Amino acid sequence: MHAFDILAEAKMRQWEQDRRDGKVSEKKKEAAVTPESYESLEKQLYYDIRKLMVESYLAGEAGRQEMQSRANNMLVQLAARLERAGYNIMSKMFADEVQALKARAHAVMHDKSKLLALLNDLD
Predict the structure, then answer these.
(1) Alpha carbons 49 and 71: distance in angstroms, whole number
(2) Where are the domains of the chain?
(3) Could you please report the per-residue DSSP string of 16-80?
(4) Is the pTM above the cut of 0.70?
(5) Which one, of 62, 55, 46, lies nearest residue 95 by Cα?
(6) With a cut of 70, which residues of the chain have pLDDT below it?
(7) What is the distance between the terminal CA atoms of the chain, rounded to a whole angstrom?
(8) What backbone torsions phi and psi does residue 20 show, to the nearest 5 degrees?
(9) How far is 80 from 26, CA to CA, in rounded Å?
(10) Pairwise CA distance, residues 87 & 78, whole Å
(11) How far apart are CA 2 and CA 24, in angstroms?
């Protein structure tokens, strides 16, 4: 078991014990995340990587390196999650799309209006 699984199991057992002891209210609360609004971590990572990559060209030279490094680290996390789940082709496809986006942003890096348009097209 991963550390997260062990921690989650311990939290669940503590909650069940607190519920039996009457420390937890049985009132139903509205879900913070509904099935309609839920986005997977992989999807969130992918969108954040793309946004960060384009924003890095708006940040200037010093900020660009740091932001692209963060985006690359996030891309590695995404690739690892997808490949662990058996989605090797999807992982490669996402990496290729991010590199193509980086190339497009690099091509227009001196035109702020085109970078902003590219950023708006991501949404």
Answers:
(1) 5
(2) 39-122
(3) HHHHHTT-S-------SS-TTT---HHHHHHHHHHHHHHHHHHS-HHHHHHHHHHHHHHHHHHHH
(4) no
(5) 46
(6) 1-5, 7, 25-37, 123
(7) 37
(8) -65, -35
(9) 39
(10) 11
(11) 27
